[in-house]
Amino acid sequence: MDTIGFAKHDHAACIQTAIATARDQCSANGLQLTPARERVLEILLSEHRAMGAYEILEILRNEGLGSQPPVAYRALDFLVSHGFAHKVEKLNAFVACNHPGQDHAPAFLICRICGSVAETAAVPKDSLLGDTARAAGFVIEKVVIEAEGLCPNCRGKAAA
Amino acid sequence: MDTIGFAKHDHAACIQTAIATARDQCSANGLQLTPARERVLEILLSEHRAMGAYEILEILRNEGLGSQPPVAYRALDFLVSHGFAHKVEKLNAFVACNHPGQDHAPAFLICRICGSVAETAAVPKDSLLGDTARAAGFVIEKVVIEAEGLCPNCRGKAAA
DNA sequence: GAGATCCTGTTATAATGTAACAACGAGAGC
DNA sequence: GCTCTCGTTGTTACATTATAACAGGATCTC
C-alpha cells in the first residue's frame, strides 16, 4: 500500500476509479449507493482531505441533495461502516478511503499546518500494542492510529 | 510500563501518589497547580475512566469551583498540555495519565461495553508507521493510538 | 394489497468546544 | 509604595459537531 495524499496524481482518474470500485462493491454486496451517498463519496474524493460533516452538508444543500444534518451524517455513516471512507477522530472529520474493499486498519498522517491527510497502512498486528492487549486480556476490534505533524510541503514553511 | 485500569489496585494510594507527583512536577517546573486544576486531576484519577468535560464541569459546579465550560476546558488543557492527563479522541473525553513525567506516547484500550480505558505504552519509533512517514517525508510530532474492543470483564457478557 | 425493509425529509435538541473581554492577584523592578 | 506584566479566573455569548424521533416514500415479497 502506498501513502498517497502528499504526491501529485491523476485526480480525475483517481476519483472515477474509486467511484467505480464503490459501485462494484455495493452491487456485489446488495448495498445501495444512492445519489446522496455517491455524491458524498465523490466530494470526499475530490478534496482529498478531511472534511467536516457540515462542510459536506453545505455542498449537498447547494445541490439540492439535502439540507439537514442527518442527510450528511447518514451518508457518512454508510460510507464509513462499509469501508468507503474513514472518520478522522482527531479532526472530527471524514476522508475517502484509499483502498476500499481490502480489509483494512488505516493509519493517518495529518499535517497540522495545511490539514492534509494521508492514509497509510496500520502496523500489522502491531506487535507491542497487540501483545500488551493480549496480556491484559483485552480483545481489540478496531484501532485508531492518527499521527499529527508536518507534511513535506509544510516542513519548510514551519521552520521559519 | 504496565497496563493498569482493568486490574484492582489500591485506589486511594494511587490517587494520592499521582497528585503528589503532579505537585512535585509543577513546583519543579514553575507551573501552578491551582485548586481547580488539582481538583480536576483528582476527579479524573478517582474515576479511572474517560470523562467528558461537561461531566467534570458538573462536579466542579456542585463544589463551587466554577460553572461555565471554559473552567473545565482550561483545567483540562493545562493537565493535557503538561502531561498529567490525555484526551481520548475517540470518546471526546479525558483520562488521567498513568505515568506522568515520563515522556510518553500513550496508547489506549477502550472497552466498548463498559467504557473503561486503560493506558499503555505506544509502539516504539521503529514501527512501520514511522518508516512510512519518513518515506513520505512526513515529520511525526504526536501520535494518537486508540484501540476499541472488549475488556476482560466484559468479554463474557458480550458473548451472550 | 398488506407487510416488511430500507431510505429520505424534517424538526428539534443534545453534546462538545471556543472567542473575547473584564477583572483579579502575585511577583519584578523602580 | 507604585505600577507593569503575566498568568489565572469569571462570564457572556456563540460556534461546531452529532443524534433522537417520527412521518412519508419506494421497492420487494408474499
From TrEMBL, chains A, B:
Top-level division of the source organism's lineage: Bacteria
Cited Pfam families: FUR (PF01475)
Keywords noted in UniProt: DNA-binding, Repressor, Transcription, Transcription regulation, Zinc
InterPro entries linked: FUR, Fur_C, WH-like_DNA-bd_sf, WH_DNA-bd_sf
Record bears the keyword tRNA processing: no
Entry similarity comment: Belongs to the Fur family.
Name of the protein: Transcriptional repressor
Protein species of origin: Mesobacterium hydrothermale
Lineage: Bacteria, Pseudomonadati, Pseudomonadota, Alphaproteobacteria, Rhodobacterales
